[in-house]
Fold this protein.
Amino acid sequence: MSGSSTPDFATALRVKLQTKTLGHPLHYFSTIDSTNVYAVRLAREGAIEGAIVIADAQSGGKGRLGRSWVSPPGVNLYLSVILRPSVSATAAPQLNLLAAVAVAEAISEVCQLFPSIKWPNDVLIDGKKVCGILAEMQTDAGELRAVILGIGVNINAPLSAFPEELHDKASSLLLVSGRAIDRSVFTASLLTHLEKYYVLWLEQGFPALRTAWEMYASAVLGKRIAVAAPEGTVTGVALGFDDGGALLVRGERNEEVHRLLAGDVSVIGGYDRGEKDDPRR
Ligand code: BT5
């Protein structure tokens, strides 16, 4: 099996963790239905900020909107982080953006690859998805109590680990870099970046992420896109991001600027390949 395997992954991760809060405590499972489902339960029972749930395999990995997340054993990262930010519930979706930036930085640091972020929460390499993020909120009388940030990263999955219909859409760090990545090294790097951006975000809000966000998410800007948003489908040109991290789209029907907080984006005519857009090259 590529990379470290059960239970060495968790042991190695504990040794490498350099974070103050994230990963303490660390709940590890060789198989679980979904790390998010478990973390949601832990959070309801009062788990502290920074508690994480990691599994080697998921039997019922969850995507957004009832979709599923393919979670083969022993090769990838399935992580859920419990956060309890003192912010309004309306600011919580920004944690999707924060997680995507942290994943992009970890990929860049550990694999020397340049990923792109497809707003709001997919991380792509060569136009294929290597990471998905699922943030779930817990509120009480409108007050934010916890956010469960679920992050799935395809690290060492071979193409055969994905069903046929995902072969054109999904990839892994192994497939794009040609080498197996140590999952504990990657996860420790991810948690370090996540903690760094989280602390900055609590102090400054979205502006703390803006530079990194625009570097990785710029592939969509200036493009004609269609966004299936909760309020309906918006088609137009992606203009940029506002100070709340919302995507600004100039609509085609009436030139009105839409401010979108969530949705599924497709770039009309295809999504650019991140590597070719690497602004650092
Ligand atoms: C997501 O949903 O991308 C969020 C995925 C979050 C997964 C993590 S793993 C740890 C934690 N525990 C959980 O149970 N979930 C979180 P969405 O944007 O809805 O994308 C789902 C779609 O991506 C699917 O319908 C497939 O088309 C595709 N897909 C499924 N598995 C994939 C994979 N492993 N890699 C790439 N694409 C995948």
Residues 34-36, 58, 61-65, 67, 69-70, 78-80, 129, 132-134, 150-152, 154, 166, 170 surround biotinyl-5-AMP (CB under 6 Å). Helices lie at 8-16, 35-44, 94-111, 173-177, 183-204, 207-217.
